[in-house]
Every structure is written in structure tokens, then in C-alpha cells.
């Protein structure tokens, strides 16, 4: 194994915040640095890992478009960012093509055919702790590979070219960062508990920065996909390995479930905000509708005059977040299975009325503020990547295993983590999931149904052209982080860098509290407490990746400071 001295690695992993471009996009798995912010002329990729961003830009330079780059970046993330990058999970892509067409691709996991509403409850009807989160039974049928193949319709290069960098990274290995080493160390016990087969991630001596992670099984799986297309995952050897793994650990995914997995092309959820067009993900993600509700509830309020992170601004934004999340709990779920009243939830007069009981200076209360009464019908792991290319194709992809390293189960012999996405269903009405979200009938488990998501891959268009490409991981904090990033740029006039990196906060109706990052200003915290809010400090919120067009030809690419996230461009 090739190893770097820790000191050298510190230097290599040192962050650069250099503006103006920079071509540090060569893909050297043992010698890479993290660029947080750059200005690119032709194209840029921002993702959770510098090697994955570099792979994306290499594909752009080779003549690929933003869709090619997004596919190659996702595949590379499945290798270099195993906690969330994946082939064993699912995701969403929102895109705006250079010809003006907008797309929303749903490759969310599906509940296995023998899943059932109460599958995570004991004989007394109580939730069995952890059953929907860890181990084989927590997995939905993965959609990522089907999603990548579906998006090939808009790609220019061959899939073989797009997957090769990932194969090389898996086969030859790459140097892991300090953050990845400590993250892998934190799951060693879980790996023992939820696996019977050896995997590349086990290390009895403990991982350290600079160690090389080689993933031979994963490389072989990726080669099967390269050589056999989608069938290299959903049929044949890989499918058999998945089903054998399920049988070893009490999982229920079958060969038929894999064979029957289907992506869905959806109509993007679009709306206007202060003259910009927002294009985001529809059901089964709550993201687009929540973003729509939150932005519209404050569009007629003098938010910018309150000032960024002022008590008035945070209160107003908290109250719109509260109301949107109350509606999420009651009304949202997979619209293929449950009639989600999308038009009513985003009806302008409904949203105006929703704010009638908003009282400036006085905290709202989630026992009184319930899901809205709708008008009559009118006729912590996920990862995000943003790509913008020279032709004006913009791609926003959020993909997930759900929790960090998903179910913590590695498919024996196939080398990849499988998701624990089933926990995103409401396993019992009113019982909070991993992210504290509650739900009911709309998001109950049913065979073939997709679990409600919060992932919000989003584009903001100005005069119909891409202006911002944005998204983030973070469970239920995703829609609020995207909301705040957009508001920071449009209403508070911030640079993309500040919009991403300044403190974030979050309210999701229940629990009735404002979560704030450590760096949230003390004076605002105290003022909000005086209004009656409960403030809860927490770790970082999201890892937002933004590309923002700047006047002229360029684009600013910003990777969140909260992780190893990196921008690359040329
Ligand atoms: O789809 C969802 O909403 C969740 N499974 C996302 C999980 C997530 O963002 C974890 N990241 N920190």
C-alpha cells in the first residue's frame, strides 16, 4: 500500500480559497488538494470530494456536457465518498439543458415487494428501535445505477468513458482524508455487527489520513456495469450477490424487485420568486414544494430590510419553515400512491392565509400551528453535486444512502454499501424518523412505493438562463438550507461564498425548536429566546454546493467549508 507521511498530507489537504482560476483538476489519487472557491470560464463541478470534482471537470474537458460530468462525478463519489456517494442508494437529478428544456429524474429507492406498513413495529405496535435504520431490512431497492443510465439519454460520451475513472479509483485506491479516516473508524463496530463478509472498509488497526483505500470488489462490480450496462447491476452476478446478502441478514429485496426497479421522469416543480424562476424536484421529494411554500410565504414581506441573521429575519424565516414542515407531515408522500394536493399546497392565497397568525416578535407554537386547512381543489448521509458547462447545461444532483454509510451493510463480494432509505417512510404515524420528521398515511409503507424525501436539487433561472445551481445533503435541513442559500443571494445580496458558508438555522415544525449552528450570532439567539423560541445548538447544517453565474462569461463555484467538499473548474 502506498502511503503518504501525515505531514505531507496535511499540506496536500490544506484548503485553498484562491479566487480566479486555477487548474488544479488533474486526477491524482495520492496528491490532491481542496479548492473551496474558484471562478471558472467554461465549466465547473462542485461535489463532496476533490477527486470526484476533478473527475467531473476532466469529463467536461474531454468534450462531455454537464450530464456526462454529473454521471462520472456520481460514479467517482461512489468510490471516494463511500458514506454517501453510492451505487446502492438513490437520488434525484434536476437539469436545464442548453436548449431550454428542464428535466426532473426520480431514481429514488422503491420499497421491496414484500414490505408492509407495520414491518418495523413489534407485536405491541411499537417501533423497534433501529430496525428501519441499520442492517438489511432497512434497505429500499436501489435506483442510482438506473438513474445514471436514464440520464445517458442526454449525455455525449459513452458510459464506458464515464465509469472508467471510478473503476481506476476503486482498483488502484486513493489516499483518504483525515475526515474520511475518522468517519470510517466511527463505523467499525457497526460493520462487525451488520456484516458477515469481509469488506474493504474494515481495519482493525484503525484508519488514518493518507491510508490508501482499495476497493477490489467494488471495482469488479463497476466493471460488470461497464460491460453489461444496467443489467450489470440489476441482473446477473451483482443482483445475485445483493439477494444472497439480503438472505444472510434478514433483508427482503428479491431478484424480481431488482429487475422491476424503474426510474421516473417527472415534471420539475417550477415557480417564480422575485422575478427569478426556481426549478426543483417534485414528489416523491418534499423539497420543491417546501421551497415553493417557504419562499412564497415571505415574498411580500420586507425581509431584506431586516438584515441577514437579524432576529426579525430569522423569526420570519423560522415561521415559514414551521408552517411548510407541518404541511409536509400531513400531506406529502409518493404521489404515485397517495393523492398529494400539490396545487392547493402552493396556492398563493392559501400561502398568504397561512401567515395570518404570524406575529412579529412572538414565537409561534407547533401545538397551535397545525398543517393548513387546504382550499378547495383547483382544477446525516447524502451528497449533492452541481455542474454547469460551457453550453449552458446546468445539472443539480442529490443522491443518498440515507444515513452515513446507509444500512452499514456492505453487499458481500460486491463491495458497496446498501441504503437504509426505508426509514424515510413514516414507520408509524407521529413517530419521528432519523431526522425527527413525522408523517402519517401519505407516507406510509407500501410495496413499490417511494419514501418521501427532503432532497432539493434546485436551479434558479434568471431571464430563463441558469443563474444558480444549488443543493445539499442534511435530511430535513435540506429544503431549509436551499431556501436560506437562495434568500441569502436574492434577498440579502450575498456572494455565493457567504451564502453557503455563513451560519444556517432550521425549524421543522416538530420538534418545536430552532436548530442553530455554533457560529450563529449570540445576540440574535438571545433576542429569539426572548420572543419565546427554544434554541438548540447543533453541529453543521448541510454541505451546500453552489455554482453561480457572474456577469460576462464566468461562473463562481463554491464548495461548503463544512466538509472536504471541493470546487473544480476550467
Ligand atoms: O431523502 C432524504 O430526505 C434523506 N434520505 C436524506 C438524507 C440526508 O440528507 C443525510 N445527509 N446528511
UniProtKB/TrEMBL annotation:
PTMs per UniProt: Cleaved by autocatalysis into a large and a small subunit.
Q: Which InterPro entries match?
A: GGT_bact (IPR051792), GGT_CS (IPR055262), GGT_lsub (IPR043138), GGT_peptidase (IPR000101), GGT_ssub_C (IPR043137), Ntn_hydrolases_N (IPR029055)
List the Pfam families.
G_glu_transpept
Q: Name one GO molecular function term.
A: leukotriene C4 gamma-glutamyl transferase activity
- Record-listed L-glutamate binding positions: 108, 400-402, 424, 453-454, 475
Entry keyword set: Acyltransferase, Glutathione biosynthesis, Hydrolase, Signal, Transferase, Zymogen
Q: Which GO terms describe its biological process?
A: glutathione biosynthetic process; glutathione catabolic process
**What EC numbers are recorded for this enzyme?**
2.3.2.2, 3.4.19.13
Which reaction equations make up its catalytic activity? an S-substituted glutathione + H2O = an S-substituted L-cysteinylglycine + L-glutamate; an N-terminal (5-L-glutamyl)-[peptide] + an alpha-amino acid = 5-L-glutamyl amino acid + an N-terminal L-alpha-aminoacyl-[peptide]; glutathione + H2O = L-cysteinylglycine + L-glutamate
Pathway annotation? Sulfur metabolism; glutathione metabolism
Q: Signal peptide span per the entry?
A: 1-19
Tell me the active site.
382
Q: Which family does it belong to?
A: Belongs to the gamma-glutamyltransferase family.
Complex formation: This enzyme consists of two polypeptide chains, which are synthesized in precursor form from a single polypeptide.
The protein depicted here goes by the name Glutathione hydrolase proenzyme
User: What species is given as this protein's source?
Assistant: Flavisolibacter ginsengisoli DSM 18119
